[in-house]
Write a structure and sequence with these properties.
- The protein is of the alpha+beta class.
- The protein folds into 2 domains: 71 residues; 129 residues, Pathogenesis-related Protein p14a, CATH 3.40.33.
- The chain contains 5 helices and 10 strands; from the N terminus they run ββββββαβααβααββ.
- Helix 1 packs across helix 4 and helix 2 packs across helix 3.
- It is globular and about 50 Å long.
- The mean pLDDT is 91.
């Protein structure tokens, strides 16, 4: 499914009433796009389970909203590495009795940009080559969080191995299982000819936020 919203000063969410109680409970927002101001919104979800889904459009608080929403069906494809990370994160959270994290378009963008930059600009750090920290990059992607956080990893070629690496680290695990976060974005970049001084080839980023 692909949802697009014109430049509208509005946010859009995909919601599933998982327990059929006709109310929105924690973890029932599957995906969101929350770019501030006159910015186009877009959500793409792959391989949705059968069920009833709802769309919610709300003002982003920066002015009056006048929007046009379009929806289309995308051909099913294999889950990307980033989508696999999102699924495993929510499996781990479910195992601890925590609500699922929504996949957010802007957090995806900031996470993907950081993975790209680590690979191409030859560094592995939360501070990027321009001197920006994770919150700076998240806000540059037009996401304004109450709370934000970041995990990075490198070297492993699969989503499962990378998640195991994070879950075996207390700080990274704390981010994944934090009650402060409601949304996540994931970025992955593979650089086959990684000949710099930092040459892990596989670069992973998770950006977390709450809204």
């Amino acid at each position: 499914m692909i949802l697009s919203l014109n430049r509208s000063r509005a946010d859009v969410e995909i919601i599933q009433d998982k327990n059929n109680n006709r109310r929105l409970d924690p973890g029932e927002i599957l995906a969101s796009s929350r770019a501030t101001g006159l910015t186009a919104e877009r959500i793409q979800l792959n391989r949705l389970n059968a069920g009833v889904y709802y769309l919610r459009v709300t003002s982003d608080g920066t002015g009056s909203s006048n929007y046009r929403l379009t929806a289309s069906v995308a051909r099913a494809r294999r889950l990307t590495q980033a989508e696999q990370i999102w699924n495993i994160v929510n499996q781990r959270r479910q195992g601890q009795g925590l609500p699922a994290l929504a996949l957010n378009t802007q957090l995806n963008s900031s996470a993907q940009l950081h993975s790209n930059n680590m690979a191409v600009q030859d560094f592995f750090d939360h501070t990027d080559h321009l001197g920006r920290g994770s919150r700076d990059r998240i806000e540059a992607a037009r996401y304004s969080p109450w709370y934000s956080g970041e995990n990075i990893a490198a070297g492993n070629s699969t989503a499962l191995d990378t998640m195991n690496q994070w879950m075996n680290s207390s700080g990274h695990r704390a981010n994944i299982l934090s009650v402060n976060y409601t949304e996540i974005g994931v970025g992955y970049r593979y650089l086959s000819s990684d000949t710099g001084s930092v040459n892990y080839s596989h670069y992973w980023t998770q950006n977390f936020g709450s809204y």
